[in-house]
Design goal:
Distance between the termini: 39 Å
Shape: globular
Order of helices and strands: EEEEEEEEEH
Structural class: mainly beta
Largest sheet: 9 strands, mixed
Strand order of the largest sheet: 3-1-2-4-9-8-7-6-5
Radius of gyration: 15 Å
Length: 114
């Protein structure tokens, strides 16, 4: 169990980038078989597909990721290190499915106002 973004995450893979947690899971990450395509997708590219409450990401040679209903992520890995896309892109999509505003930044600088 982990925590990130104010949510508890139950994961079948280790996520050392996240903090350990306890409690009921808001998000479940599991290893499994990912569909080849999303039915009735609203956007399709060679790398991803988007449908109502669904997102499918294909990263050649690394993994496939299937996100549904802002709660479930299924991973179909091809390599051992699949966390980079999971912790960045895939969790961001899941947060969007939960109607959260997602901002991504590097070298964040926060200045305290007087």
């Amino acid at each position: 169990m982990y925590t990130a973004f104010g949510l508890n995450i139950q994961s079948e893979i280790e996520l050392p980038e996240l903090l350990a947690s306890q409690g009921l899971a808001d998000i479940i990450i599991a290893l499994g078989s990912v569909p080849e395509h999303i039915n009735n997708s609203s956007e399709t590219t060679p790398w991803y597909e988007i449908g109502m409450g669904q997102f499918l990401l294909r990263v050649d040679g690394i993994s496939k990721y299937y996100v549904t209903d802002g709660k479930h992520i299924i991973l179909e890995p091809h390599l051992d290190d699949i966390r980079v896309f999971l912790v960045n892109t895939v969790l961001a999509v899941l947060l969007l499915q939960r109607n959260c505003i997602v901002l991504h930044g590097h070298n964040l600088f926060v200045q305290k106002l007087n």
